[in-house]
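thread: overnight batch results

M.L. [08:02]
morning all. the overnight job finished for the chain we discussed friday. pasting input first so we're all looking at the same thing
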Amino acid sequence: MTFDRLAARARALPPIVADLLVVAVVGVLTTADAAVNEPGYRQADALTWAFLVVSLAALACRRRWPVPVVCVTGAACGGWALHGHIGELLNLPVIVALYTVAVLGDRRRTLWTGVIAATVSGAVALKVGRDVVNPQGLPVLEMVWPLVPLLLGEVVRTRRELLAEYAARAARAEEDREREAARRVRQERARVAREIHDILAHTVSAMTVQAGVALDALDAAPEVSRQAMTQVRASGKEAVRELRATLSVLRATESTAPAPRLDQLDELVAGVEAGGMRVSLRRQTGGAALPAVVEATAYRIVQEALTNVVKHSAALHAAVSVTRDATRLTVEVVDDGPPVPPPAGPPAGPPADRGFGLIGMRERAVAVGGDVSYGPVPGGGFRVRAELPTEGAAS
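M.L. [08:03]
and the structure it wrote out:
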């Protein structure tokens, strides 16, 4: 069995059991040394055993009162020396007590304990004398030995503090990782929610308009009705495809469907025009490649703006403009609907039927470092304008 396993088992023992084991080991070693003294010196007597009993009894309380235990064991050790009893292990109880003071205290207490212990030990050595046989005969050495257990205890305590700090840092890092993972999950859910909203709101609105056209023309113009229903079916298939690609991120596999691009605006405009509204498209991007996330954001903003025109406006015409300059892409959608009356009072919150289209557009723009502004146009109509950076956009 390795030393590490023994140390681990010792640390796993209850404190009272560990203290009693320490007292037992120290008692056996100290008793063996106290029982036999050097020839010519005072042999063990009642006072010797009294000092031993007091030292061991105090040592059992070393965790609760470490400084008083040092005082008691130190007094017993000095009493042996002054009584004339010589032994190599008689200072073992005070060594354990000094170690406990350092390992359970702080640096300031260790420093003061070392100064006092060294001073007292040196004074006892001077009092006893410089007899070579007497271990207390060298004052300098006697001033040094109390510092050894204090230094060992300080090293052990510092190492424990470092390990505790490392464990706390690891726990904080794990908490940070969990918070970041939760934030990413919330962010991805919000993204999926925006995608689903944009897909369903646009497609269902267009299908509703096209179904209305089909119903109106069913008897008078069957061909027009047939074209409208064909467009409804195509829109439904496209919505299913986009929903499948969007929801795939919630499964174990990742989505491989490409994000919408600006060159798909023609199809988007054609689908809206199939419902009876005219849409003019102006696209000037310079032919240079744009970041995919910027193109997808611009496409979704145009899609949502046209959906709002179909759902909430009586406009007959909408103008879509996508232009690019050196550092940004500007997207603007304007319709010619009737003037929007000002609200009668302060809004209490978003209307229930308004949905989250404008909020989603702003969130998309902010996600890539841009912004969206919107509002009624003087004289009638509504404008949505987004400015998206083309350099350094978030991926």
